From TrEMBL, chain A:
This is histidine kinase. The chain crosses the membrane at residues 20-42, 48-69, 115-143, 163-181. GO terms for molecular function: kinase activity. The lineage of its organism: Bacteria, Bacillati, Actinomycetota, Actinomycetes, Kitasatosporales. Residues 56-196 form the Putative sensor domain.
TrEMBL record, chain B:
The keyword Phosphoprotein applies. SMART domains: HTH_LUXR (SM00421), REC (SM00448). Residues 143-214 form the HTH luxR-type domain. GO terms for molecular function: DNA binding. Coiled coil: none annotated. The keyword Acetylation does not apply. The modification 4-aspartylphosphate is found at D52. Keywords: DNA-binding, Phosphoprotein, Transcription, Transcription regulation. This is DNA-binding NarL/FixJ family response regulator.
Amino acid sequence: MTIPAGLRRAVLRAQRDTGFLAAGVLPHLALVPVWAWAAATIARTGNWLLTVSLSAALVLLGTPVLTAVQRARYRVLIGVDVPRLTPTAPEQWTWASTARWLAATWPWRKIGYHLLLGPLLALLELLVLAVAAACVAGVIAYAWSWALPTGVRQDWFGYLTQLPAYTAAGLLLLCALPWTARAVARAEARLALGLLGPSQAQRLQERVDQLTVSRTDLIEAVDAERRRIERDLHDGTQQRLVSLAVNLGLAIATCPDLSSDAREVIARAHLEAKEAIAELNDLVRGLHPAVLEDRGLDAALSGLAARTPLPVRLRVDLEERVAPNVESVAYFVISEALTNATKHANAMHAEVVVRQVGEVLRVRVTDDGLGGADAAGGTGLTGLAKRVGSLDGAFHVSSPVGGPTTITAELPCAR
Amino acid sequence: MRAVIAEDSVLLRVGLIKVLEMGGFQVVAEAGDAEGLLAAVAEHRPELALIDVRMPPGFTDEGVRAAMEIRRRWPGTPVVLLSQYVEERYAADLLSANTSGVGYLLKQRVADVADFVAAVRRVADGGTALDPQVVAQLLLRRDSDPLARLTLREREVLGLMAEGRSNAGIAQALVVSESAVAKHINNIFAKLDLPVVDADHRRVLAVLRFLGASRA
């Protein structure tokens, strides 16, 4: 006879859940002797000061041990991982930060779980175990009832009267047992996650900390990648193209007796090589200008403004260099804004103002072009908004139809 | 004339040697980094050093620093810097001490062999050769000073002068007559309160001194 897979799973799960509940009884009752003793001692001797401090010490010592036991029980028996939280110690020990740290570290919720909730849970578990025992006993009532004293058996265990009812009731309870055990185990797991694990606020705080770190890492990784690609292109393709153009130039200069057709072909190749160099230069410089790293934003903007095919007024007012990622985002905002002004807005003039006000780097690019740029529509502008957002900066585009267009970015730059 | 080359790309070094030899230079030493360059200059005392800006180990401005070191230790040694991109700051560093015998050009200019050779020879003779892109950057920040009084054409002429071109060269570049160029130049000198001198490189010097004087 084969047992259906669903039934087997249900039986296994019921077994597991019941085992889990059974394993909870003792640890949940562990602190009962402590407060029972405390209550009894106070009632007997009235020496409540000593008793309370002694039992408090016992509770405090027991809490980490019991928490570890419960964690293991949840993890091993029902696969629920109760997260551990070690609050990071504050950098400066002020009253406020110390209070926050204590609130995060002090195991109020754990003590609550072990001291108050534990006994209640133990009762619940015992109840479930009792029901389980009762239903097993009911199902197999025919198997053991013969061993009862004759009087009891005749009064309570009639073969045709009571026993079928016991068996039926046992079977019904047996069917309900998995659900009950499951429900209790789930409820316990939820309580444990809430009380033994970090609180919602702590979890969110931890998540925010993690995300902040990973976002910074990601931005740095992207920047490093851009730098690497820039270096590779500079050392490889760009040198090769320049060399190609130089050789074609040499061919033109050193072979005056070529046929005019050949000369024309070489001259065209020469021209195309030079154009390819110019295009690649623009692309590579857009990735990450080396001078930005070397001499800072002000220096890098000179080259950018000079290469922009429209007159650019450039005003940079920086007392010192800002963080590299702030420099690079500011550079890309200005670069993209000037590209838009040239390519899409048909602007005649543009103005770039970069100013550090306190701990904010303000970047403003204005052009007198057609306007109508949409911060939500253009992929260039959404990309810029995202890059500015990645530094918790503010990005704003004002571009009424007919112009002028003003793009502003405010980047936090505290060092 | 003897020349020394510092360029970390071997491929390009070969091309540069050919171009210089075509221009009548004899390449006496090649180096792949600033250290090698300084050693070569110390050994050969060349009449021209052609230097790539980005070289090992840092790949940033090693060439500029090496050029300034050469100018400090062996004053008067003509140096031409080559770079994928020209930067106003590097030019300012380079021109801060002395503007004669200095060149700063985009690498792609080498491809126009005849022009490049002419520019390098100008530098070797104590002149100046600045890339138009550097000049554009140098002019960029000067809109509040007397340069603002120049007309667009006069700014173009000033730019070409700063590159180190002669009147004939400017006339050719702008497709105008030489006398028109001379008139523009006189206007520029008048507007900028510069004494009129006729030697090619001294007027460049005057322009550059003017450009250099107003920067911090």
